[in-house]
Amino acid sequence: MKTEEVGVRFEQLFELWYGLARQWFELWTPQDLVSRELSLHPEGQLWLDDENGAVQMLTGWHGPLGAVQLLGDDQVLTSDAVASGFDRASAGEAPPLEWLLYMNASRNKDRRQSVIEAASAAEVAAQTAFAKKLGNDISDDVVQMLITQANGLVGLTSVVRGFGLEVPSKNAIQEKLSRVRNMAAHRGATPEEEEYRAALGVARAIISATSPMPLPAGSYAREVPGVS
Length: 228
Hints:
By secondary structure, the protein is mainly alpha-helical. The chain is built from 9 helices and 3 strands. Helix 5 (about 110-135) packs parallel to helix 7 (about 150-160) and helix 5 (about 110-135) packs across helix 8.
């Protein structure tokens, strides 16, 4: 291969590998790393008042700081989490689809679209749990037929509840998530803030019960970011 071909291929493989690691990092900490990287720029200054009221400008090694974001302790990745994310990426392991869908839903500023996406994430999680519980003795076609006959999220969660999974009650799923999702999807209604938070909370509870989030190695066990 020509040198430039090797470089291009390396770039492609590196981006795939780093992309997987970044997905794990974002799942384990409430940081939108993609948006942060896109927003970095060398312009701007940050001025802070010290305890004596004096104004000071923060600077770095190469002049004034650009995009600055202050993070709390709950937003910082531990060394265990970083190592675990890169290990999973090296193994070609992507985070579960339902958690990625929920993470994206929780970041969506459009409450209407966010509820629709969160309900979809919960349904994916319930379908996956349903298929796993049936095992390998039933063909994929039969599994899909049974999922279809379960008649949506409420029916699916009723079935997986029978498998012993502690999903929210049928009434909670129907009233707090499915109804709000249907209003948003079929009538274009934007849920109120309280309805929105309750809907995402139920969706997250379904996903947590049917598809527990893989955690990093070590003692790092922080909850996934999002509304609960």
